[in-house]
Each structure stands twice: as structure tokens, then as C-alpha cells.
Design a protein that fits this description.
The chain has 293 residues and is α/β, with parallel strands linked by helices. Helices cover 35% and strands 16% of the residues. The protein contains twelve helices and eight strands. The longest helix has 16 residues, at 153-168.
């Protein structure tokens, strides 16, 4: 995937998604937006303003993992660096990347407001935060976080989120110009959003995905049948994980199920575990498989 070319570039350290890198003529800008109450970072090509009047750009919806935020892919994932590298190497074409806060997207608006007003809802000593310094004030046990993340709300409301995003940005309205990918819990959301919205995304990327059992609620009910139906559209279904990842066995079981049902997918296995160096590598490999040149 022309990975050797990417090694020529040094990593750019970013303090938040409002930062931009101006050293290169090809790199885009990342800014903040709030879409249907969900905080987002949005990457736009440098010439987006001029070209958006007459054309639509391919779009990648890129989801973070558990305890993360909309900043994660720009801060820890070095998104600007990798987009700059891929564009310079002509490995991909220009695109828009939408990075929402999956956690807040998983909570109905009224509950979301109450939670934001009362951050220390579980002062039991088990607190989690991100290194991005964003608005992630929350202190939740892992069980509480998982309950919100796996409520099904984000998946069932993603069509509305995507429709609003398409109103705001000049992005593709057809499957061939859409991709969705996520790491860990974001991989869980990617898996379920993609089958809940079949024939919506031509490219689906599961990076160290949390392919774990979910409650019997929409959209997790009968997800196997929905995945089979989704595969009728023949998307690029790309799964990647490290050999030492704690989710490795879950992913292998999912692969066996896909193969037992004769469903086509692409698999990449790396060394290492549940780490940002792996997820950065997976993102680069995934994007180079698109036809967005």
C-alpha cells in the first residue's frame, strides 16, 4: 500500500482538531462543528471552498474508540499527517473526513444535556478521560460507558446525522463516494451502522473491532441476517487487528462466521495489540484501497 513512501514523513504533533498544518500545499484543514448536537472534527481539503461550489467530495465517516472523543483521530491518530502523506504520494484523492463524538452521539439529546450538566455521576474512583484535552469531562465506569455506547441509539440515528452532514458539506450522496471506518468500539458502531444502512457505503473498515455480543435491541436484533443482506451490495469489507490485541479471538470468531456464510471480506493481521500505531497503519492501508484517486 505504498507504506514505504509514508515513512519519509515525520509525525506531526497536534493539540486538537482546531489545529491546521500549513507547511504543505496539499494538506487540508480540520475544524470543529456540531451536527445535531454531536461535536465533530471535520477535515476539508485546502481547495474545498472553491471546488465545493461545483463538485462533491468523497466522504469518510471515521469513528473513535471507547473513552475517546472527536479529537482522537487528529490528536492521537495524526490524521493531518497521514492525509498529507497520502495526497503527496498520490495514493488517494482529496476527500472530506467527518469524525464525530460517538459517545455523545449514542445518547438521546435530553439525556445528553443532563449528563453534560452533571459530569461526576459515578464518583467511585474509576474514571476515564482522553489525552486530547477536549470536552471529555465524564467519569464513568466501563459498564456505564458500554451501556451508553451499545444502546443502539447511535446506529438508529446515524441516518439523520448523515443527512444533516450532507446538507452542510458538499459530499458524495452515492455509495461509491462514501466510506465508514472505526477503531475498537468505533468498529462495533461501524459494523452495526453499515448493516443498518445497507447499500450506503462502498467501503467499510473495522479496525480492531469490538465484535462482541450486544443486547437484543434494535439494531442488534438479528444482525446476522442484516449483514448478509448488506453484503449483497458487495462493499469492500475490510477487517484488521493485531495478533496481541485483546479482541483478537472475537475477530477470529467473526471471520469464521463470515466464511461459513460465504461472505467476502478482506483481512489484514499485524503484530502488536490495541494501539494507535496499528490504527494509523490500518487507516492508511484502508484508504489506499478506495477508488478515490
Amino acid at each position: 500500500m505504498k507504506h514505504s513512501v509514508l515513512l519519509l514523513f515525520s509525525l506531526v504533533l497536534l493539540a486538537g482538531c482546531s489545529r491546521t498544518a500549513s507547511q504543505s500545499p496539499v494538506v487540508g484543514n480540520v475544524s470543529r462543528d456540531t451536527i445535531l448536537g454531536v461535536p465533530c472534527c471535520v477535515y476539508l481539503p485546502n481547495d474545498y471552498a472553491a471546488r465545493s461550489r461545483t463538485e462533491r467530495f468523497p466522504v469518510l465517516y471515521l469513528l473513535h474508540g471507547m473513552y475517546g472523543s472527536e479529537d482522537d483521530w487528529t490528536v492521537q491518530g495524526n490524521l493531518l499527517h497521514w492525509m498529507d502523506s497520502l495526497l503527496t504520494a498520490q495514493s488517494v484523492g482529496e476527500m472530506v473526513v467527518v469524525m464525530p463524538d460517538n459517545f455523545l452521539g449514542s445518547i438521546p439529546p435530553d439525556e445528553r444535556q443532563a449528563l453534560m450538566a452533571s459530569p461526576d455521576i459515578t464518583p467511585d474512583g474509576e474514571s476515564f478521560s482522553t489525552s486530547s484535552g477536549s470536552a471529555h469531562w465524564r467519569k464513568l465506569t466501563s459498564e456505564q460507558e458500554r451501556t451508553y455506547e451499545m444502546s443502539g441509539y447511535w446506529e438508529t440515528h446515524f441516518p439523520l446525522f448523515m443527512a444533516e452532514t450532507e446538507k452542510r458539506y458538499s459530499i458524495a450522496r452515492e455509495p461509491s463516494g462514501r466510506a465508514i471506518a472505526g477503531l475498537s468500539m468505533g468498529g462495533f458502531h461501524t459494523m452495526h451502522i453499515s448493516h443498518y444502512m445497507p447499500a450506503t457505503f462502498a467501503y467499510i473498515g473495522l479496525f480492531s473491532p469490538a465484535v462482541i455480543p450486544a443486547d437484543s435491541i434494535e439494531p442488534y436484533i438479528d444482525w446476522q441476517t442484516q449483514v448478509i443482506r448488506m453484503m449483497d451490495a458487495h462493499p469492500l469489507y475490510w477487517i484488521a487487528i493485531g495478533r496481541e490485541d485483546h479482541l483478537f479471538d472475537f475477530v477470529q470468531n467473526y471471520r469464521l462466521w463470515l466464511e461459513d456464510n460465504h461472505l467476502e471480506y478482506t483481512y489484514y493481521q499485524s503484530a502488536g495489540g490495541h494501539t494507535w500505531p496499528n490504527w494509523q497503519d490500518y487507516l492508511v492501508r484502508f484508504l489506499t484501497l478506495t477508488d478515490w484517486k
